Every structure is written in structure tokens, then in C-alpha cells.
Amino acid sequence: MDCCLVVYHPYRPLTQYVSDLGLESEQSILPIAWRIVNDNLRTDVSLMYPPYLIALAAIHMACVIQQKDCRQWFAELSVDMERVLEITREILQLYDLWKSYDEKAEIHVLLTKCPKPQVRPSSTTPAHTPSPRPSQESWYWAIRYHVIVRYLIEERGKVYVRCLTNEESNL
């Protein structure tokens, strides 16, 4: 199946909107809103909403964080504020997930879901003595498990671990 997905990022509308806010707000609002847009890329918000609404939601959150009153500016834009607040709620759910997720507590459960490597029995003939150094195969499994544990998929506010098969991992 051959397909192409084009996703437009909200950085350009973000810079344009912040410059429209005014020079005194630009220095404090833009860096915070930029970080919020970066964090939003870990959700599916950029696939569900147009970039200009995501930029407006990031500016709205940055204004709340900086305690700046931008209600008049948002009223002049004549955009659907309900959709902007919907995006804001989605991003806030991501931050709530980050606060409550404890990797150390959940790593044991994640590791038990991954398949264990099949160890081949070593030869017991006197001509073949095992090497004290690990074989290439054991290094392969160590690297493979590192990749599997790091392969986290975020999906709608829940974190799932997907254990790769040999065909999927391409190691």
C-alpha cells in the first residue's frame, strides 16, 4: 500500500498570531506557546484540528500561564472558542498523564509482556568450550530488548507497549 500523509505544523500561524498580539507580549508568550506546540505533537491533536486552531490553543494556554488578559484579542478573531478550548483540554490531558505516569513502577509490568529470548543449549563437547565473552547473539537480544522497551506508543492518553516480532523489528 503506497500512501502519503502531509501534516501542517502550527509554528507559522503561531508566530504570526503572537506578532499580532503585540511586541510586549511576544517576548514572554512565544517561548511558552512554542513548547506547548512541541508537546502537542505527542498527541493526535495535529491530525484532528487545523494548525491555526492549535496555535491559538497554545497562545491561550501561554496567556493563562503568564496571567495575561487576551480575551479582547480572542474576541476580535471571531474563531470558535469552543474548539480552541477542546484542543486545550486534549493538551492538558497529556500533561496530566505525564504527571501521573511512573516509569519505574510500570516497567516491570511492561517487561513481563515482552517475549523472552530463546536460549540455544550450548555444546558440552570438550573440543568446544564456551567463551567468557558474550556471543553476538546475546548482544543482539540485549539491543533488541532495549529497542522493544523504548518502543512506547501514546494513544489517547494511555501508554501502551507493543512487543515487536522478529519481522517487525528489522534488527
Q: Main attributes?
A:
171 residues; two-stranded antiparallel sheet; elongated
Q: How does this structure look, described?
A:
The protein has helices at 11-21, 23-40, 45-48, 51-66, 71-77, 81-100, 103-113, 136-150, 166-169, and strands at residues 152-155, 158-161. The longest helix has 20 residues, at 81-100. It is mainly alpha-helical and 171 residues long. It has a two-stranded antiparallel ribbon.
Short description:
This protein has helices at residues 11-21, 23-40, 45-48, 51-66, 71-77, 81-100, 103-113, 136-150, 166-169, and strands at 152-155, 158-161. By secondary structure, the chain is mainly alpha-helical. It is elongated and about 75 Å long.
Radius of gyration, CA atoms, in whole angstroms: 24 Å
Q: Label the structural class.
A: mainly alpha
Shape: elongated
Q: Which spans of ≥5 residues are poorly predicted at pLDDT below 50?
A: 146-171
Set out the fold topology.
Blueprint: H1 11-21, H2 23-40, H3 45-48, H4 51-66, H5 71-77, H6 81-100, H7 103-113, H8 136-150, E1 152-155, E2 158-161, H9 166-169
Antiparallel strand pairs: 1-2
Helix pairs in contact: 1-2, 1-4, 2-4, 4-6
